[in-house]
Design brief:
This protein has helices at about 5, 10-25, 30-45, 50-70, 75-85, 90-100, 105-110, 115-130. With about 140 residues, the protein is mostly helical. Helix 3 crosses helix 5 (about 75-85). The protein is globular, with a radius of gyration of 14 Å.
Length: about 140
């Protein structure tokens, strides 16, 4: 199975590798906070870059990080990251669980008050420049 990580540019893979090494021993709540902080850092330090591109890049980093730190759907912070990932299966699993248990979203917003805005930004970035569908083989 091909992963997103394999298709990322070298500089982005280096970022993912650094985050995976740093986050591997950490529990999901710390991983979540570190990845959310990365988005904020990207947006704060790259104001001149198109916001949607930064958000898509961040979503790619999150997805590739999840590929290396397998997600746990029983952890609310991990469900949040799965729900915005580029992995269709993880996203569907997370969104299904969020639909079945609306308290998941409430807990995410309690943990990260900006989560609603992050989700909206990811959706907007995807609408602005959708990822190209994979070609059939």
């Amino acid at each position: 199975m091909t992963t997103l990580y394999e298709h990322l540019p070298d500089d982005i893979r280096e970022v993912v590798d650094a985050y995976v090494a740093e986050l591997r021993p950490q529990p999901w709540p710390i991983r979540f906070r570190a990845l959310v902080d990365l988005l904020q850092e990207k947006l704060d330090t790259n104001a001149e870059t198109e916001r949607w591109r930064l958000i898509q890049e961040w979503t790619g980093i999150v997805t590739a990080t999840l590929e290396h730190l397998p997600p746990h759907s029983s952890v609310v912070e991990c469900l949040g990251l799965m729900s915005i990932s580029f992995n269709d299966q993880w996203r569907a699993q997370a969104l299904g669980q969020i639909d079945r248990d609306p308290t998941v979203l409430d807990r995410l917003i309690t943990i990260c008050p900006d989560w609603d805005d992050i989700v909206d930004s990811v959706a907007e970035a995807h609408q602005r420049r959708p990822m190209k569908p994979a070609r059939g083989r």
